[in-house]
């Protein structure tokens, strides 16, 4: 079949509609007002079209402690409980189902997949974190503060790991729905 990729402002998505599928991975929680954004995305689908969003489910205690190392330098938008998944619709499977339903989707389901992330050492964790959305968190840490953050991260990883490294356990939530026929 034909595949078309287009880039646009996700908060005011107006691509003419009629899409079979819209997918968003680990993005929707960054919007101050996720409800109207998601409703606009559903509106871009053809009747019966599918939408899928990915959000974080449960994160293990070590991951939460690693994330907290960045808190002293993060702007309010990145500290927002809604963005961090500790409050609002992203804090639970039911919350994300409700968000998708309020956006106008039907036949909404969550599929939660556990993933394991293995790191041999703190350098491997840093390389990984710089290749993900966590790079934005690093960008707020002054360069002269980064060695101290890495030292604290190394201690957390060592405490949670063994001689073979550390494994972090995350749940990734896939929320899927359809535009009504």
Q: Which SSEs are present, and which pair or pack?
A:
Layout: E1 19-25, H1 34-43, E2 45-59, H2 61-68, H3 76-79, H4 81-84, H5 93-102, E3 106-119, H6 122-129, H7 135-139, H8 146-160, E4 166-178
Parallel strand pairs: 1-2
Antiparallel strand pairs: 2-4, 3-4
Describe the structure.
The structure is a single chain. The chain has a four-stranded mixed sheet. The protein is built from eight helices and four strands. The protein is α+β, with helices and mostly antiparallel strands and about 180 residues long. The chain is elongated. Helix content is about 35%, strand content about 25%. It has helices at about 35-45, 60-70, 75-80, 80-85, 95-100, 120-130, 135-140, 145-160, and strands spanning about 20-25, 45-60, 105-120, 165-180. The model has no long low-confidence stretch (mean pLDDT about 90). Helix 1 (about 35-45) links the parallel strand 1 and strand 2.
Task: Describe the structure concisely for a colleague.
This protein is of the alpha+beta class and 181 residues long. It has eight helices and four strands; from the N terminus they run E-H-E-H-H-H-H-E-H-H-H-E.
């Amino acid at each position: 079949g034909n595949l078309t990729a287009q880039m646009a402002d996700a908060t005011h998505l107006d691509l003419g509609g009629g899409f079979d599928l819209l997918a968003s991975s680990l993005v929707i929680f960054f919007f101050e007002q996720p409800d109207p954004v998601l409703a606009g995305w559903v509106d871009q689908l053809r009747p019966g079209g599918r939408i899928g969003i990915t959000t974080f489910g449960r994160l293990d205690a070590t991951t939460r402690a690693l994330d907290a190392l960045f808190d002293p330098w993060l702007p309010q938008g990145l500290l927002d409980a809604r963005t961090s998944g500790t409050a609002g619709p992203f804090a639970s499977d039911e919350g994300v189902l409700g968000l998708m339903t309020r956006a106008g989707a039907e036949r909404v389901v969550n599929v939660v997949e556990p993933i394991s992330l293995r790191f041999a050492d703190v350098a491997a964790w840093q390389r990984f974190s710089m290749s993900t959305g966590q790079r934005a968190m690093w960008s707020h840490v002054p360069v002269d503060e980064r060695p101290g953050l890495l030292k604290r991260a190394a201690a957390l990883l060592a405490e949670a790991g063994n001689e073979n490294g550390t494994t972090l356990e995350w749940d990734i939530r896939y929320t899927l729905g359809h535009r009504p026929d």
